[in-house]
Amino acid sequence: MSEQTLSNLMHEDRRFEPPADLAADANVKEEAYARADSDREAFWAEAAERLDWGKKWDQVLDWSNPPFAKWFVGGTLNASVNCVDRHVEAGNGDKVAIHWVGEPDDDTRDITYAQLKDEVSRAANALTELGVQKGDRVAIYMPMIPEVVVAMLACARLGAPHTVVFGGFSADALASRITDCEAHVVITSDGGYRRGAASALKPAVDEAVAKTGDLVRHVLVVRRTGQDVDWHGREEGGRDVWWHDAVDGASAEHEPEMHDSEHPLYVMYTSGTTGKPKGILHTTGGYLTGTSYTHWAVFDLKDDDVYWCTADVGWVTGHSYMAYGPLANGATQVMYEGTPEKGRWWQIVQDYKVTILYTAPTAIRTFMKQGREIPDGYDMSSLRLLGSVGEPINPEAYVWYREVIGGDRCPVVDTWWQTETGQIMISPLPGVTAGKPGSAMKALPGISADVVDDDAKSVGNGNGGYLVLKEPWPAMLRTLWGDDQRFKDTYWSRWPGLYFAGDGAKLDEDGDIWLLGRVDDVMNVSGHRLSTTEIESALVSHPKVAEAAVVGAADETTGQAVCAFVILRDSAGDGGEDIVEELRKHVAKEIGAIAKPRQIMVVPELPKTRSGKIMRRLLKDVAEHREVGDVTTLADSTVMDLIKTREGSSSSED
Ligand code: WTA
């Protein structure tokens, strides 16, 4: 992180004290930090008591074989029972679980906890009918419709780990995930609505399934848009089954089994520093404890709140803070199918009297650009708390969020966490912590974070370094699917006993934490994690490309943007007029539209050290239109001049 960006992060020095009424009535008070410090395991055991268990655990934490943790050892529970049945049994069956808002105007559904319980039970019975058994993996590739939550909970009920693949990923990406976790069943829909039009999903599933041989036995399809689909029904020996045929007629009675606390709940693939996505494995008891506790603590959740997390269910935020955390807490929430269009969000806040909004800085910056007149046109006085996640929030965006969306009365909680951590780790507590724009403040009670130098020594206040986590926490990933060694190597090998998150951070004079972005080859584009290596692999898989280097360049709206430098094969000549567009499309096909480079430069050489390592730092200088830094370690120091002369000549931006 350059000094310039750092000072940019630090220039706002206002402090925002917690509102007095919120502080007085807060779910979690200051004493929680000391209590958790004095007995961490007792603290998390108390959080676990908030759930319903079939059998209570014998041991809170087994850390005898690090880094493989076991939480609530010997306990049994069912995640779907905790998210639905128990609320119905407690007399809250008529409470709305999900206010679902479709993208087309007036396309809405309110689903109560009782209805959700019936639907999850029917889906569980239907999946059983399709042969899904405990331990089997089920892939889910769906838009933001209620059935996606039903599908996840039905899998959880059966103990069949789901792997939800973001609907914006390509058929290839879906196929590689299906293959990696050997899923025999895929749940999808004919399509979904995006920006006013129906877009198809089923064709990508067909393509993915065709690439995976005989692996997939059934494809369960929700009819959402009614568009024509290629259909290969079971009558003709095909795999396709309509959701309404399989689920609607199934029994709403389903006797749930209690699963072991460490039974796998789901696998979520995320980008790492190498080309192959990593299957992050989360298990049941600890994950549900961590997500439900933090959802209750960080958002100060009350019974009458209307909570709205805008994340897509295809990312971890949609898992922890749309599906599992809020539902385990019996919350009422909004789920919206569409994208952040002008005014539509604020209409939803007004209509449903949303009290807690959780979103990403990239959305806030987009709204800032559109101007405050738009949100100013709506009544958003219901809001009382705002959350941010996914990337560092710059102070300007924080202050705008607070003032314009939050009417200068709502605290902003900037929450740092990862797919791997499963739960929020660093965040203000809204009734305790005075907010500093741009800082995620401190580790939550029960969490132990530090900022260290290359030798794993704490850097101390006023200094920067690497963010590490020092003690196990309930929702931590247990391993990478099928790859224990890679799990150890990736997160635990840099410094023995410490979990290295991959983020740089700084402690200010008060010891509060400021996240400074990734220090590895992971980019963060609109709060979505992308790997430079993965995009490079996609580029070199194109027949015209010999070599590629990808960097994340600072971008005003999306945080970072993908910039690629490619060397063409001799046989490709100059690549042809449309080479840049051709390559961008190729990346979209290989990975998904979100990975499309904003800019591609065709260059004659790439800057390499004498040992052949690409110096991305220098390419970043070019991509960010900066003076190119120190080139003395380059094998050929004239390379950068060659690249500079190409700048602008073959780039594409849209
Ligand atoms: C980044 C998303 C700064 C960070 C929940 C992390 C953040 C990566 C914040 C994980 C934040 C997430 N401030 N950076 N509040 N939240 N990040 O796995 O670099 O998609 O390592 O999880 O996002 O991204 P992931």
From TrEMBL:
GO process annotations (BP): acetyl-CoA biosynthetic process from acetate
Coiled-coil segments on the chain, per record: none
Catalytic activity: acetate + ATP + CoA = acetyl-CoA + AMP + diphosphate
Domain Acetyl-coenzyme A synthetase N-terminal stretches: 30-83
Cofactor(s) annotated in UniProt: Mg(2+)
Record PTM N6-acetyllysine, positions in chain: 613
Positions with a binding annotation for ATP: 390-392, 414-419, 503, 518, 529
Pfam families reported in the protein's UniProt record: ACAS_N, AMP-binding, AMP-binding_C
Domain named AMP-binding enzyme C-terminal: residues: 534-613
A single MF term (Gene Ontology): AMP binding
Similarity comment text for this entry: Belongs to the ATP-dependent AMP-binding enzyme family.
Functional summary from the UniProt entry: Catalyzes the conversion of acetate into acetyl-CoA (AcCoA), an essential intermediate at the junction of anabolic and catabolic pathways. AcsA undergoes a two-step reaction. In the first half reaction, AcsA combines acetate with ATP to form acetyl-adenylate (AcAMP) intermediate. In the second half reaction, it can then transfer the acetyl group from AcAMP to the sulfhydryl group of CoA, forming the product AcCoA.
Name the record gives this protein: Acetyl-coenzyme A synthetase
Organism encoding this protein: Nocardioides ganghwensis
